[in-house]
Structure formats: C-alpha cells, structure tokens
Amino acid sequence: MNKTVKLVNQWGEFEQKHPGGDIDEFCRYYLAHHKEKPVKGALVGGVVPALIDGLLLKIIGRISKLNMAYANIALKGTGLHQIEEFGILQTIKKEKSPKKTEVIYANLFELSSGTDMLNRLKKRGLIKEYADSEDKRSKRIELTAKGEKVITVCTERIEKNAVMLMNDLPADDKELCIQLLKNIEIKFSALWQKQKGKAFEDIYKEVMTAPKEGKMDKI
C-alpha cells in the first residue's frame, strides 16, 4: 500500500475515535499503537496491574527505584550517600542561597526529614546556613567550597548514570516521554503541599472534578 494512502487511512481511524483531535495528538496516537517493541523478560517484576494507569505508574516507580540504586553506587566515595542529597545540593546551587523550606519542598520532602538531611549535609561541611536578612525566623543556605567541589564530581557521575539507564531509548522517544509526562509532574508538585492533611477521598474528588487541560482523555 502507498505510504500516503496508509497514513490517510490511519488519520481516518484516529479521527473516528477522537473527532476533535489535532495533528500533535494524532502523532502520539500513531506512535502509541505502532511503535511497540517486543517485551523481553518480566515486565514490572511479573506482577502487571490490570489498570493501565497503575501499570504506567508502576513502570515509572520501578525505573525511579532502579535509578536510585545505580545512582547511589555512582555516588560512592564522593561525599554524598544518596541521590536525594545530590538533588538538594543541585537545588541550592541553582537557586543561590535559598530558604531552607524552599529547598525542602522543591525536593518533595516533609519538613522534618528534609531538615534532618540538611543538618547532615551541614555537619559534613557541604552547606552553611545563616539568618535571612529580611525574615529573622527563616534560614538561608548555600554551598561551601567543599560542597561546590562535591557537586561538580557528583554531577558528572549522575549524568553518566542517566545516560546509561536511558541508553536504549532513542532521543526522539525521550523527548516524547518528557512532553507527555512533564505536566503531571508540574501539576502534582504544586498540589501536594496544599493537600497535606486532607482525606484521600477529598483529594480524589478535588483532582477529578477540576477541568482537564488536554483535549484527549486517552490515546
């Protein structure tokens, strides 16, 4: 079959299922249904959720755990003990003397556990803190000279770990994954602090009744 005709037929199939869909959504639909590679080995440890939402989150969660495991190996001998410490130092470096609470919440920590981690980094001489000139109740933090050296070494190792884990994924697929998932990360990063203390059913109702940002519910 002529490639143009085949593409037109695929567009017709897509348009029947999603009458309001645009070209970007068609491209995602086409890739999702025609680019799947054979699975080698047991997916998500062999226990595959029946709900597609659950399967997607389980895949993301397991990749996150694997990233943490390999990253922690990469960090051995650097002065950092876990990938979360690296994330905190990166935030401090980027924001340039941020408030302690800003660093903690940016890295999705509870206040108590985030404070404990900052105290450990301070004890190891990687960060220093001082009173906020505008708000004496708040503390600001910055990297020490030792912290700057450590973050330089660790950045190289963590970047190598990221390249290693994503090595089998083509660059275009990486871009597509980021495009598809970034709004979920942005949305819930902004929501989780506001929803602390609420019952799950109340959170569920609040999220599910809010207007959806995309045109298509699924592909």
From TrEMBL:
UniProt keyword list: DNA-binding, Transcription, Transcription regulation
| Residue ranges annotated for the HTH marR-type domain, each copy included | 53-186
Pfam families, sorted: HTH_27
Molecular function in Gene Ontology: DNA binding; DNA-binding transcription factor activity
PROSITE patterns per the record?
A: HTH_MARR_2 (PS50995)
The molecule here is called HTH marR-type domain-containing protein
